[in-house]
Amino acid sequence: MKYLKYIRRTLALLFFLPIVLFFIDFTGKLPTQLHQLLSIQWIPALLSLNLVVVLVLVVLSLLFGRIYCSTICPLGVYQDISSRKGRFFKKKSKKVRFNYAKPKNILRYSILAVTVIAFVAGSSSLVLLLDPYSTFGRITSQLFRPLAIWINNSLAYLLSEMGNYTLYKVEQVSFVGLAFGLSALFFVVVTIMSWLNGRLYCNTICPVGTSLGLLSKISIFHISMDDSACNSCGACAKQCKSQCIDSKSKNVDDSRCVSCFNCLTSCKKNAIKLEYRYKKQNSDAPEAINNTRRTFLLASGAALTTVALANTKKFVGDNDSMLIRKPIMPPGATSLEHFNAHCTGCQLCVTKCPMQVLKPAALQYGIAGITQPHLTFSTHIFCSYDCNICSTVCPTGALKHLLLEDKKVTQIGVAHFRKEKCVVFTDERDCGACSEHCPTQAVHMIPYKGGLTIPEVTEDICIGCGACESICPARPHQAIYVEGSATQAKAKKPTEAKKFDKKIDDFGF
Amino acid sequence: MKRRDFFKSAAIVGIASVFKTNALASVVAGKKLAVHSEPDLVAVMGGQPAVMLNRALKELGGISHFVKKGQKVVIKPNIGWDKTPELAANTNPELISTLVKLCKDAGASEVIVFDHTCQDWKKCYTNSGIERAVLSTGGKIVPANDESYYREVELPHAVSLKKAKIHQALLDCDVWFNVPILKHHGGAKNSISMKNLMGIVWDRGYFHNHDLHQCIADLATFHKKPALNIVDAYRIMKSNGPQGKSISDAVMLKSLIVSPDFVAADTASMKLFSQVQPTDIKDVRHISLAEKLKVGTQNLEKLNVKRIKL
Q1: Less Cβ crowding at N or C end of chain A, within 10 Å?
Q2: A428–chain B Cβ distance below 8 A for any pair
Q3: Hey, which residues does A445 pair with through a beta bridge?
Q4: Contacts (Cβ under 8 Å, ≥6 apart) of A241
Q5: CA nearest B134: which of B173, B108, B159, B163?
């Protein structure tokens, strides 16, 4: 039984490290397949209606309790690391780690209830805010990634001064105040709570933790204390980062136990064990059993309604009124309703976007959509024609997986040309930068005057990639700009040029 | 020329003029004496990129005429787009690998290749086939995606573009080759050797804002001229340039035009191009503007032009 702790730790690191590296990787060298580690996260699986994963996670929880919290959830593992560090900094005499604490039931069940009710009513804002995986994604991409890029760029600068180009500079993560603030806030709260009290965040604030707690109350295997062997020494409680072992009453609060198995190695009397819950019909207080049944029903009911209503199209509040310019959603978002309801703002697509055109939104999607990705174009930063990475990595299904061929005709927006701002009109000089960068030639040059040519947009083949807007020299207000589509239509395929097949065998001079 | 080299060659020339032995004359052949017999422009047609390059260089006195032992060489192809070679959006990789190898064999201490790309630079470098072409022949391909790699230089003879930020690799090298591909271009009408220079500068937005053609011509007045402009016309892009939409935009011409003169190279290339897609060279204004700035000449009649069909 003692080995369980080590298995758990190994597994946790096997999940945690690739996830961290995947979020930080700014070179694009890690395989994009790693995103599968993120599709098995609880909320993304629910939102994308990935029934296989949901079923596996439910079965896992019904077997061993909150395995998800202790090994799969990156925020959970981060808290274990943080609380270990917390111990490291404490004085030796104070190395007693944890004491039993009462559950904050009202708080945790209210947060869960409000999150579920809001979601069912059509607002996924609390899911976005509280999903532990997405919170971790935001913290890593908004705080650790910029740090890693800064270190890389400093080294690259020093090396390039010496004529060495092994490292190259990478565009720094663009600063979006609200996204940074939100991530920093959660980072501080989670770090302090775990530093001082282990898994307090998971057992008080996290709605995933609370709902899985309901399942783990009836899990087939659970941590139990042998009344006759236990002498209430409290050694196990000191190891319990969930602060859920009450050694006085010889009781373990299953709903808060994250199945870390640390307690198993602590007992000299072998009184604390992982045991089969239903092995004997003992004479436990009948109401306790009733309670578990009720909570189970409640939990499965909540889970089912969540799944059933994940696709509801309703949306609280009128988004359009809050927008200055229609936001441009990543390809595969299909519609504003679908996208806003399914995206948890985990930042995975933002960190994987090789063009860095995806950025966390501030208020472009309204308050509920803070940190959901949108496209912002700036010089050299636009959506690459031959790329569909964002739609392939999205774990929540907010972005539907698009094949490259389909992405090339997915209209995320449409370019609009304002002649009066164009340098061909204002300066009567050739430019054509927009058309030059247009991959479909939806933006093309037509004769203007005196041998000059001026851009024209064929809207039905424009896919809204923003290459034209990104390069337009008219600043600060570009002569050509992209207006996002609230529903992503299919663009027409561009027509090919006529083939030239005469043979040339003269130089012409 | 270094001072020491000057004294050395002066001494050799002095001795040679006294003794007039063939052996000694050949030592200085690489410097001044042979220049007049060499063509100003070489056009080759009908071979693979490597074959045509070798042939053109042979006419121009061989690679050792341009690259000396221990020199740092820069090669500037067009790698602007995330496109494969058969689409003719970027310079032919075989041409680049051949040139890198020639430079290395001539004793270059380092051969650096870069371009300030228009699309994701890593994908451009990879999918153009140029990264592999360079690395497999012992060259170095360096990034150009950040302003910190660029240093400002003055362009005293320029009209509009009085200064530009140019990649440090090019500023620090001993000799460089400009290796564009011949393409149609929506903005500049055609993209040849002078238009290719936009990939050595950082702020291209300025060009589009301040008379694109004038700025292109201005940049060609930069004092550090390429040893040669090697215009890749193995495949050209006849329409929808500079990116192209599909393979229908590419035309196989199996040609190569080489000249140290920007204007002459671009003029000859335009004549070749016009056989496929008739274009008035006057519309490619930067060519005549550059001539006005004394960058080179459009008058191919006056030049020693060597035409070779393989």
Answers
A1: N
A2: no
A3: A455
A4: A79, A80, A83, A97, A98, A198, A199, A258, A260, A262
A5: B108
Cβ atoms of B235 and B88 closer than 8 Å: yes
Q: Which residue matches tokens 């889970």?
A: A303
Sorted by where each begins, the domain ranges of chain B are 1-35, 38-309
Q: Specify the CATH number of the domain B38-309.
A: 3.40.50.11440
d(CA A76, CA A68): 9
Q: Which two tokens stand for residue A320?
A: 């359009």
As beta bridge partners, residue B228 has B177
Interval A37-89: pLDDT, tens: 888 999 999 999 999 999 999 999 999 999 999 999 999 999 999 988 766 66
Burial of B186 (C-beta count, 10 Å sphere; 0-12/13-18/19+): buried
Please name the fold of domain A331-490.
Alpha-Beta Plaits (3.30.70)
Task: Measure in Å the smallest separation between the Cα of B168 and chain A Cα atoms.
Answer: 9
In this predicted model, what pLDDT tens digit does every residue of B66-76 receive, in sequence order?
Answer: 999 999 999 99
> Do A509 and B240 make contact, defined as CB atoms within 8 angstroms?
no
What pLDDT does B10 receive? Answer: 56
For A307, residues 6+ apart whose C-beta sits below 8 A from its C-beta are A46, A49, A54
C-beta separation of B200 from B167 below 8 A: yes
| Other CB atoms within 10 Å distance of the CB of residue A143 | 15
A435 touches chain B (CB under 8 A): yes
Contact A206, A112 (CB under 8 A): no
Cα–Cα distance measured from residue A251 to residue A257, given in angstroms and rounded to the nearest whole number:
11
0.90 surpassed by pTM: no
Find the DSSP H helices in A28-68. Answer: 36-39, 42-47, 51-64, 67
CB of B82 within 8 Å of any CB in chain A? yes
Contact flag A429-B211 (C-beta cutoff 8 Å)? yes
Q: Tens of pLDDT along B77-129? A: 999 999 999 999 999 999 999 999 999 999 999 999 999 999 889 999 999 99
Query: Are residues B205 and B155 in contact, defined by beta-carbon separation less than 8 angstroms?
Result: no
Q: Domain boundaries in chain A?
A: 3-309, 331-490
CA distance A135 to A347: 9
Sign of CA dihedral A300, A302, A303, A304: positive
Q: Is A145 helix (H, G, I), strand (E, B) or coil?
A: helix
Q: Give the Cβ contact number of residue A412 at 10 Å.
A: 25
Query: What are the φ/ψ torsions at residue A121 (nearest 5 degrees)?
Result: -75, -10
CB-facing half-sphere around the CA of A57: CA atoms within 13 A: 28
Is this complex scored with an ipTM above 0.85? no
Residue with tokens 């590419």: B250
Asked if A142 and A185 count as a contact pair (C-beta separation under 8 A), the reply is: no
E strand or H helix at B77: strand B72-77
The alpha-carbon gap from B4 to the nearest alpha carbon of chain A, in Å, equals 26
CA distances from B87 to A435, A497, B252, B271, B274 (A): 18, 13, 10, 21, 19
